[in-house]
Amino acid sequence: MISTRHSLSDFTGLTPLSETTTCVDPQAAYRVLRERWGQVAPVELEPGVPAWLVMGYPEILHVVRNERLFARNPLHWRLLSDGVVRQDSGLGPMMFPRDNAYFADGVRHRRLRAPLDEGIAGIDQHALVRSLQATCRDLIRGFAERGEADLVTEYASVIPMLAVSSLFGISTEHGHQLRAGLIALFGSGEDSQEGNRTFERILTEVMQSHAASPAKDLTTAFLTHPNLHDSDEVVQSIVLMISAGYETTTSWIAQTIRLMLTDPRFAGRLHGGRLGVDDALDEVLFRDPPMANMPARYALADTELAGQPIRAGDALILGLGAANADARMHTDDPWLETGNRSHLAFSAGPHTCPALDPSRLITRTAVTTALTELHDLTLAIRPEEIELLPSPWTRCPASLPVRFVASDVPIVEQEVSHG
Fold it and tell me: Residue 69 in contact with residue 300, Cβ under 8 Å?
């Protein structure tokens, strides 16, 4: 059904966006929205704050490739400039302006993105793999004797934070503190802004210590990069890299392990089956991507999208999880889709995530090490009992309880391919 109304404010009784991320079957939730509204649906970000959820694959590509009509800068968000969105809103850390590439357009976006691209290109992947393997083994040693563990809180959520933090010369202690702040930030709830303040305070302290004592890490590289003009741009660029790298990779690791343990196509791989870790990595990105709903684009002029009337200043959320299931783009046969990498899990256009390669390397290393070292690994609960962290944006498991054969045997180091 196509709406004939003229403004987002005309809609009532909207579906909260979080209903697509906290349910067992997100595609069922997206399907209900599609049946009612089509490929672009009005949803509620928080009470009284509507936005458009773009669920169609070609519609998302149209939005992300058209900077002249759909901007990333939240200063164009009408509900924010009109005061409808409160300054203390839980949406703030994810949707309010920041001095980094995520919230910039055009020339400014390219200036702020360059240090990120150069920093990622300069990562020594062989050294990163060795460091990751050591981290994974140390974490597994911490619970191997128990024969049970939570592979989110004790493993999947720790590895990305320690890996990304090490690139910026951030201590393990600070890394754990950053993780707590990020869980609140991505939750977009009442504690979101406090979590963001903690996160930024730690990074400001790290930046100041590196200004006094430079090191060979990304913090120093950002501090000395000519494209970053002041301390705010440095801190917010670090905020962007760490927050994006942590949340998406944690979810990717956890969801891939879940898939390998529960889907017969992949579970068989543990006993000689033909679908392996890389197949599972792609499956997760395609069918349940770490960032299910990505904020946001803002219309710069009145337009129409999939039959819906978009007004200047409207917010558009990219339903990446929905778009990957667009019936116009793929089949429903899980075997035929194996190896499909046409997903939008990392978006597209000028704002495509620059860290796909290192995040895949981190995820593959973490998953492979867990599956190799934890023998007879099984999920300790039914798949439908896996709880998710509250967030309108992500579908990150809150926990992943597992059982395995208890062992106090020293773990043998092995290479994990990063090809």
Answer: yes
Q: Prior bond to 184 cis, omega within 30? A: no
3-class DSSP assignment, residue 29: helix
Residue in the structure block whose two tokens are 């003009």? 229
In angstroms, the first-to-last Cα distance of the chain is 46
What's the whole-number mean pLDDT along residues 168-175? 86
The helix (H) or strand (E) run that includes residue 315 is: strand 315-318
222-232 pLDDT, tens digit each:
999 999 999 99
Q: Quick check: helix, strand or coil at residue 307? A: coil
**Does the structural domain 8-403 have CATH classification 3.40.50.300?**
no
What are 381's two structure tokens? 């609960």
pLDDT at 267: 63
Backbone angles phi, psi at 378, to 5 degrees: -140, 155
pLDDT at 258: 93
Q: Whole-angstrom Cα distance, residue 385 to residue 382?
A: 5
Predicted confidence at residue 187, as pLDDT, reads: 86
The pLDDT tens digits for 373-384 are 999 999 999 998
Query: Per the structure block, which two tokens stand in for 126?
Result: 């062989």
